[in-house]
Specification:
The chain is an alpha/beta fold. About 35% of the residues lie in helices and about 25% in strands. It has a six-stranded mixed beta sheet with strand order 1-2-3-4-5-6. Strands 7-8-9-10-13-14 form a six-stranded mixed beta sheet. Strands 11-12 form a two-stranded antiparallel sheet.
Length: about 260
């Protein structure tokens, strides 16, 4: 059975390692030496690298890992990925025998133009598209692209484990509470997430079902979310896409 474990790297990133027996795959290795040490401490051999997008904190360790392990690198065909051997596009699959991995490639543009997610075996590796209670900034894509990417992820089975690439939960929850202060799930999540962080534990993975319940960016059609956006931003009759666009702009300047 394939196990999944977070490796904290850089300031607030997570690289995710899937492993079975002595073989491993790493997703978004932003830091090479740290991951080599982690793998060696567990007597694991790296068989492949998966990359969701080109930002340095997701690819910064690729060259080091390639020098040590000589493994293939899978990543978006539309972006410049160091050492990439297998360019990928929406609808393709990543199938490995060791460890046994079978993941569907999902095109989820918005944060970057060619951002990919990897879905399968009950897991979603979504990079910087979907966070716990949040979503990625629009650095290269449009609000419409990100909105539709999030809709696609929200349609996955509710028990899907969401393995995002940053520990942003506490700030995201604080923002979400500003939008939906009467959401009991958010109050409970704010308390539990704070408890996890005090103990030095990760707040992720969550699940798609939980994100549907607490993440304002997946709740743009909810009356309470729309009403809050219309009141705060002074808009009327906002569509779900317009609600998303306003929410993203609000989150960009949130200092709570």
């Amino acid at each position: 059975m394939v196990e999944v474990e977070a490796v904290p790297i850089l300031q607030d990133n997570y690289a995710w390692v899937m492993y079975e027996g002595e073989e491993a795959v790493v997703v978004d290795p932003g830091e090479g030496e740290r991951l080599v040490t982690w793998l060696r401490e567990r007597s694991l051999v790296l068989m492949a690298i998966l990359v969701t997008h080109h930002h340095r904190d997701h690819v910064g360790g690729v060259d080091v890992l390639r020098r040590v392990y000589g493994c293939p690198v899978y990543g978006p065909a539309e972006e410049v990925i160091p050492g990439r051997t297998h360019p990928l596009a929406d609808g393709e699959r990543v199938r490995l025998e060791r460890p046994r991995v079978d993941l569907k490639v999902l095109g989820v543009p918005g944060h970057t133009r060619g951002h990919l997610a990897y879905y399968g075996q009950g897991a979603l590796f979504c990079g910087d598209t979907l966070f716990s209670c949040g979503c990625g900034r629009l650095f290269e894509g449009t609000a419409a692209q990100m909105f539709h990417s999030l809709e696609r992820l929200a349609a996955l089975p509710g028990d899907t484990q969401v393995y995002c690439a940053h520990e942003y939960t506490l700030r995201n929850v604080a923002f979400a509470v500003e939008i939906e202060p009467e959401n009991p799930n958010l109050r409970r999540w704010a308390e539990h997430a704070a408890h996890l962080r005090r103990e030095g534990r990760a707040t992720v993975p969550t699940t798609i079902a939980w994100e549907r319940a607490v993440n304002p960016f997946l709740r743009c059609g909810e009356p309470a979310v729309r009403a809050a956006v219309e009141r705060i931003r002074g808009v009327r009759g906002a569509s779900p896409l317009e609600v998303f666009r306003e929410l993203r702009a609000m989150r960009d300047t949130f200092r709570g």
